[in-house]
Amino acid sequence: MSGSKLEKMYRYCSENMGLIPLIEIRSIISNYYRKSENSRRFSFIGLASIIEFKFVKKMLYESDFKWGVLLGLVGSAVFIFHLIKDGVRTLTINSFHCDMVFTLVVALCLLFSSYPFFIDSFNCNMQEVLPRKPYVFRITILLFVFIISSSFIAAIFYFLGLTRIEFY
Length: 168
Description:
Elements: H1 5-17, H2 22-35, H3 43-50, H4 53-61, H5 66-86, E1 90-93, E2 96-99, H6 100-127, H7 135-159, E3 165-167
Antiparallel strand pairs: 1-2, 2-3
Helix pairs in contact: 1-4, 2-3, 3-4, 5-6, 6-7
């Protein structure tokens, strides 16, 4: 039994959440995306106010690239926790040493480079359309953007003396 992620999630959640019929959900989603062309990056917020919040949340969890966003959020939270608790301290992994500012830079770059792909996946799942680009191409672009942005920002912070990166 195959179908779109929307159909699969609807079958999974419909009895527990008391959802309206799938045809009505598709109509609501279609109208929402037709009317809100400019706010697609935050479409899950608008859809959660129209459709059952728990259903939209489950659809958000089914989106691709969620791990990049979650790791970015967790890395940022770890940095803030350690900044408040210990100040800027050193992180050591084998012969690589850096301070927590570098961890924040990497976490934020991961978060901001994967978020657009994450939301595009969510929007495609909700509209039951295939992504315009293949998955391998999207992963390649994501990695390229992440590596270039984190390297560039970390280099700027390093040369300004705001972070410390050492190998020994």
